[in-house]
């Protein structure tokens, strides 16, 4: 290789290096391009036969490279042309800046030369301002001399309520004052000295007093607008015209303040008398509520007060709609404004009334007035008033929370009254129990006292009255009544217990011959109260019980406890009367003569006759319990082994006597009917025991005991052992077999 070639090669080697210094990514980009080219060539020429198309590929790539070079040259040329144009613009801007700089330098030199001349003009400006002020003073001398007389005349017009004329004079005085202040100011940017400002204000001090006096008269007219409208609305019309004039003046002065002259606002502007007009109107509406106190509206007076408010407000609204509305511009919407004012004042007044210590009748009057009267067509629901304003714009007269508090206070007040009445009714009931006469009966012949009638009527009346307010209050009142009913029934049951203890303490001295009658009347009373309770519960809405956080009342359970206690006392009284006769059961005299069964029947018959005075189903319940008493006493007599048979004839006689007694009892309880009145028949045990005792073959006793145990699962080994003893013919082996069988049946 020649030296020239080596030099050329060295230059070629340095050239990429210099390009890499300018563009560090060039070398990396070239390497990536070579790699991509090799990859493409390895794919295209992977087989020898593909080399035939090498010339075609070389030509295509040469054309593509030439196209790229052409686009690059075009882009570089466009870039260079843009740079050349920008340089030309910069040269032109630099030349213009130089010219402006020279012009500013010359202007500065000329300004420095004229500074002395400007100082000589300052004195001339001061003289000019003083001359202008003196000219304003001279031109306003006639007005200034007339100010005191104008003020006095305007005062006279205000006192005589010639409001339009007074306002016209007042506007002249204010205009004079504003013109003088403006002229003394001299220019839009000028300012008055403190002495000048004070001098003008002192000279026109009567104007401010006139404004206050006129405003006072205006608001007096507006506050008495309702009375004037019915007599002579002219003063009210004059007041409205003055208010509108003042509003127009306020707008004009505000526009001048924002205009090119930037004239300042006069003292006391803007007056905003239209806003004051509506404030005075609302103040006049609220005046009717200020003198009201709890002492003036206590008790029935509150309902009268609310009724007076209704009639007064509706009369005022009629005056506003038919008279005052025509005295004001339409955009005043005076009826709507009066509605709003009345509503707001009522809201405040009723909030105050709700905070008083009200009784139930007073709370009812407030709730009824708020929820029904106020929104009725007789008041705010009137079609003409609804056309003036949507009801939703006014909002609630009392908030939902306030209504809930009122309802809670009502329920608590009613609860206190109900509790007192229930206590008094219970005391009257206890006094009735001591009367020496039979209880009263209803039209069906059932015993009853005044207690259930008083309680039922009281609770039903409270629920009916509460429903006049709404279902929610009705549900709360019923819930309260059920609580009090439960408390009453618990005290009633305790009173029954005390009544029974007192009767048993010394019956020979403190015997009440109508003790049983009043027990039966108490049971009938409970049945009536149960029906009343169920009726009240049906009146409640299905979701009312879940709305109360306390445990819901359960007066029906208390009723059941009271009825069970009364029935137990009735059965104790029956046992007390049967006690002298019961020792004669299952004895030798009883076996021979049947005593004392007839006497027992007479006592039971007397009781059953009284049980017929008890309302169903308790009458049947008492008869059933009476049967159980007789059966239990028979079983108790057997268990005492009063009679042990000595022969088969005695066993037969004992069984026959037991069957005869059962027939007597069955006729006593069921009359001529074939079967019992209820599914349970306690007397059926007596024939079963008679068959057991009458059985001739002792070997059949295990089978008989098996049937007896199947029919009466609560039979015990002691019961069977006593029955075997009463028979008197059971050997040890048979007894053992019978008891073993009974034990096996119990285990099974």
TrEMBL record:
Pfam family, one: Sec6
InterPro entries: EXOC3/Sec6, EXOC3/Sec6_C
Residue segments, region Disordered: 1-21
Example GO biological process: exocyst localization
Recorded GO CC terms: exocyst
Gene Ontology terms, MF aspect: SNARE binding
Family: Belongs to the SEC6 family.
Name of this protein: Exocyst complex component 3-like 1
Originating species: Salarias fasciatus
């Amino acid at each position: 290789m020649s030296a020239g070639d080596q030099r050329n090669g060295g230059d070629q080697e340095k050239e990429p290096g210099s390009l890499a210094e300018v563009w560090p990514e060039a070398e990396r980009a070239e390497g990536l391009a070579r790699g991509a080219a090799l990859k493409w060539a390895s794919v295209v020429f992977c087989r020898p036969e593909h080399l035939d198309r090498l010339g075609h590929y070389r030509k295509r790539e040469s054309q593509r490279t030439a196209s790229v070079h052409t686009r690059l040259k075009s882009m570089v040329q466009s870039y260079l042309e843009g740079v050349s144009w920008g340089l030309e613009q910069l040269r032109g801007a630099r030349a213009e800046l130089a010219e402006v700089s020279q012009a500013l330098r010359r202007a500065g030199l000329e300004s420095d030369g004229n500074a002395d001349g400007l100082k000589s003009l300052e004195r001339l400006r001061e003289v000019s301002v003083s001359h202008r002020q003196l000219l304003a003073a001279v031109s306003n001398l006639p007005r200034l001399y007339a100010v005191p007389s104008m003020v006095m005349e305007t005062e006279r017009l205000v006192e005589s309520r010639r409001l339009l004329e007074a306002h016209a004079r007042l506007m002249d005085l204010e205009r004079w004052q504003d013109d003088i202040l403006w002229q003394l100011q001299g220019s839009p940017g000028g300012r008055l000295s403190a002495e000048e400002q004070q001098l003008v204000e002192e000279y026109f001090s009567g104007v401010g007093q006139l404004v206050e006096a006129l405003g006072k008269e205006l608001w007096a007219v507006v506050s008495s607008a309702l009375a004037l409208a019915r007599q002579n609305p002219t003063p009210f019309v004059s007041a409205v015209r003055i208010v509108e004039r003042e509003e127009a003046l306020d707008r004009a002065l505000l526009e001048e303040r924002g205009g090119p002259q930037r004239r300042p606002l006069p003292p006391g502007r803007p007056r905003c008398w239209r806003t004051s007009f509506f404030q005075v109107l609302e103040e006049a509406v609220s005046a009717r509520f200020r003198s009201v106190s709890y002492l003036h509206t206590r008790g029935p007076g509150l309902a009268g007060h609310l009724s007076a408010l209704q009639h007064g407000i509706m009369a005022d609204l009629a005056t506003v709609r038919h008279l005052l509305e025509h005295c004001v511009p339409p955009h005043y919407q005076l009826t709507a404004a009066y509605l709003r004012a009345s509503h707001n004042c009522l809201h405040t007044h009723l909030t105050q009334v709700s905070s008083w210590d009200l009784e139930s009748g007073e709370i009812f009057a407030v709730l009824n007035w708020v929820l029904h009267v106020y929104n009725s067509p007789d008041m705010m629901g009137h079609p003409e008033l609804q056309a003036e304003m949507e009801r939703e714009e006014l909002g609630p007269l009392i908030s939902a929370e306030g209504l809930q508090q009122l309802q809670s206070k009502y329920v608590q007040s009613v609860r206190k009254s109900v509790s007192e009445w229930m206590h008094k009714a219970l005391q009257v009931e206890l006094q009735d129990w001591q009367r020496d006469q039979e209880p009263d009966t209803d039209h069906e012949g059932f015993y009853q006292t005044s207690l259930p009638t008083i309680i039922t009527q009281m609770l039903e009346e409270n629920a009916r009255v509460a429903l006049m307010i709404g279902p929610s209050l009705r549900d709360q009142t019923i819930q309260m009544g059920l609580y009090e009913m439960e408390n009453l029934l618990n005290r009633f049951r305790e009173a029954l217990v005390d009544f029974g203890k007192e009767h048993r303490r010394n019956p020979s001295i403190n015997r009440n011959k109508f003790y049983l009658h009043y027990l039966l009347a108490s049971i009938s009373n409970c049945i009536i109260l149960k029906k009343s309770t169920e009726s009240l519960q049906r009146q409640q809405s299905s979701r009312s019980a879940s709305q109360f956080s306390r445990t819901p009342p359960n007066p029906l359970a208390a009723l059941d406890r009271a009825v069970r206690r009364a029935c137990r006392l009735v059965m104790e009284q029956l046992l007390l009367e049967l006690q002298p006769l019961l020792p004669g059961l299952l004895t030798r005299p009883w076996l021979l003569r049947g005593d004392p069964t007839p006497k027992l029947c007479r006592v039971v018959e007397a009781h059953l006759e009284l049980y017929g005075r008890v309302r169903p189903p308790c009458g049947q319940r008492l008869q059933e319990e009476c049967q159980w008493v007789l059966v239990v006493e028979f079983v108790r007599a057997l268990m005492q082994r009063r009679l042990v048979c000595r022969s088969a004839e005695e066993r037969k006689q004992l069984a026959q006597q037991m069957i005869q007694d059962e027939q007597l009892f069955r006729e006593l309880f069921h009359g001529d009917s074939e079967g019992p009145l209820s599914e349970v028949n306690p007397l059926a045990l007596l024939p079963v025991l008679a068959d057991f005792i009458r059985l001739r073959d002792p070997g059949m006793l295990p089978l008989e005991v098996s049937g007896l145990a199947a029919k009466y699962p609560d039979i015990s080994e002691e019961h069977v052992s006593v029955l075997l003893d009463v028979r008197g013919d059971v050997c040890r082996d048979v007894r053992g077999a019978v008891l073993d069988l009974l034990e096996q049946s119990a285990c099974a």
